[in-house]
Amino acid sequence: MEFSVDTSLGYQINHVARLLARDLEARIKPEGIALGAFPALLHLWEKDGLTQKELVARLGIEQPTLAATLARMERDGLVTRRRDEGDGRVQRVRLTPKARALREVAYDAAMDVNAKALQGFDEAERELLMALLRRVILSVEGTENNG
Amino acid sequence: MEFSVDTSLGYQINHVARLLARDLEARIKPEGIALGAFPALLHLWEKDGLTQKELVARLGIEQPTLAATLARMERDGLVTRRRDEGDGRVQRVRLTPKARALREVAYDAAMDVNAKALQGFDEAERELLMALLRRVILSVEGTENNG
DNA sequence: CAATATTACATAGCAAGCTATGTATTGGAG
DNA sequence: CTCCAATACATAGCTTGCTATGTAATATTG
Asked: Domain check: are A23 and A72 in the same one?
């Protein structure tokens, strides 16, 4: 088949991702949350005191990317980093009270963005889209540059 | 409904986008094409000699982002920029022979990445996913920060 | 137990996205 | 024709992604 931008999964996924990112950023920046901090906060709200390594595994980003993001989050008063007693290499990341207080506002923002993106979708369609995306993730992660 | 990373469209779309971008980059970088140059090239292969403004409209990125990308592409010998005769403000972007020669290789790379991502999908599922993504794009673009 | 390897994180440097703003050319109003 | 607005692009500065490499602490091995 001939290649075309309109039928390219990668092109369109990239397009959607940028649109959703812009939208989310517009909602959370006024609350004092940078776009890159958001995924890290989601996991820390689930389980506070994670190490950098644990966060890297959960987020699927590279370690230096997270280190820089955590530095900005510390600067912005969202987290503190403290050396682990017992293992001096480990930095445990802890949410500040300010960050803990932002949880509901942030959830609402994310749910609003998703709801807008999925307006007109019934529950079955929404589930279907998420299921298809999960399959794509497994395919790409499963072969990790050996394809 | 309670918010969760696993059921968040934005989170998962962002994840897929990064995975696909990494994969494509690994394939095209050795050919001398940077990741950011790829979408611009796709449109220039369709129609050479576009202006920056026309490319910005087609790509859905901001003008300064494209200006920087074109500067890198010029540095890398993929395009030349020439002032339009008749309107001294306009820069027409033209592909170099080198860039024209890369077309098939680039198409193949993109199709490979998409095929890997969609492995195990039949044609109907593939069409369905693309259709759902198109609906998401329309929803998000259609309300453009008025939601 | 000293030397080495491994681990966890930090730093440097680049790409590519963004907003805000500057500059040069063109077009239009008086 | 002159002045001002609009247009097309460039520049500056930030964020967030990446790879490659450095550093300090811990674990392992001969």
From this structure: no
Q: Do residues B82 and B52 both lie within one domain?
A: yes
In the chain, the amino acid numbered B85 is E
Per-residue pLDDT of chain A (147 residues; tens, 9 = 90+): 678 999 999 999 999 999 999 999 999 999 999 999 999 999 999 999 999 999 999 999 999 999 999 999 999 999 999 999 899 999 999 999 999 999 999 999 999 999 999 999 999 999 999 999 999 999 998 765 443
Of B9, B21, B114, the CB nearest to A117: B9
Four-point Cα dihedral B115, B27, A12, B140, nearest 10? 140
User: A112: closest CA among A50, A5, A14, A25?
Assistant: A25
Task: Check B143 against A116: CB less than 8 A apart.
Answer: yes
Task: Describe the crossing of helices B103-117 and B37-46 by its angle, rounded to 10 degrees.
Answer: 120
Q: What's the domain count of chain A?
A: 2
Strand C nucleotides where any atom sits below 7 Å of a protein CB: 7-13, 15-21, 24-27
Give CA–CA dist B8/B5, Å, rounded. Answer: 5
Q: Which of B2, B4, B6, B9 is the best residue to mutate to test the A interface, defined by the most A CB atoms within 10 Å of its own CB? A: B9
Q: Does B44 touch chain A (CB under 8 A)?
A: no
